[in-house]
């Protein structure tokens, strides 16, 4: 028995004093209203209504139960209203700040075809994880080690100068020679998106292994600040190929390391994570820099 539907019939019939009028008000056939009230009476083991040929009246037990039935009906109607509003509410998704507008817009468009109204919220890696934990967003694309992620974005070094035919850039070449010790040493700038242990710590260990100074590998306050330094010097930016292309820089892989960003989906509810994973993986990957964006 559906207790909510049975209570709706009971409230309508008792309020109108008639099965015929009450059923019409509840938009159900009279026979259905009668069956639902009878089922509710069997469930409680007592009569709710006294029936005669012209009308129905509440029994003493029915008078006691009517307020509870009304509260249940009101709560069910409020819940249905809230459910409809929830369907229309945008789905807040924390995304990396490095996501470019065009592929992000294409992802939103693709999501709408899956009945999902995405509301992307750009944030840094630590902030995205915290927003998902505190339910400030329904889901987040979080940074994870590349071998644990759904999406993998290669990282390398990019600079203003064209390295020519060089297939890779070796970090050890940034070590200052005797003639350069009094001049400003070239640096590797790490942008905030890569200020995570599985990227930052590996680059830092490489710095120490090849004999660079601590100040030659630094985390920049922003991608804009890092790019400005690279455009005005011989410094190198740790970034993805797509970012380098957008910034007009020349990109090569790191000779000593295979570096990459990894991304996965996290959410407070398993259903919310599933809804994001059900979107075209290539559309999400394009936002993250996995695939080459359209010109």
Automatic annotation (TrEMBL):
Q: Which InterPro entries match?
A: LysR_HTH_N, WH-like_DNA-bd_sf, WH_DNA-bd_sf
One function term, GO molecular function aspect:
DNA-binding transcription factor activity
Domain (HTH lysR-type) ranges = 1-59
Pfam families, per database record: HTH_1
Q: Supply the alphabetized keyword list.
A: DNA-binding, Transcription, Transcription regulation
- Show the GO cellular component annotation of the record: protein-DNA complex
Q: Matching Gene3D superfamilies, A to Z? A: Winged helix-like DNA-binding domain superfamily/Winged helix DNA-binding domain (1.10.10.10)
Q: Which domain of life is it from?
A: Bacteria
Q: State the family named in the UniProt similarity comment for this chain.
A: Belongs to the LysR transcriptional regulatory family.
Query: Which PANTHER family does this one have?
Result: HCA OPERON TRANSCRIPTIONAL ACTIVATOR HCAR, TRANSCRIPTIONAL DUAL REGULATOR HCAR-RELATED
Q: What is this protein called?
A: Regulatory helix-turn-helix LysR family protein
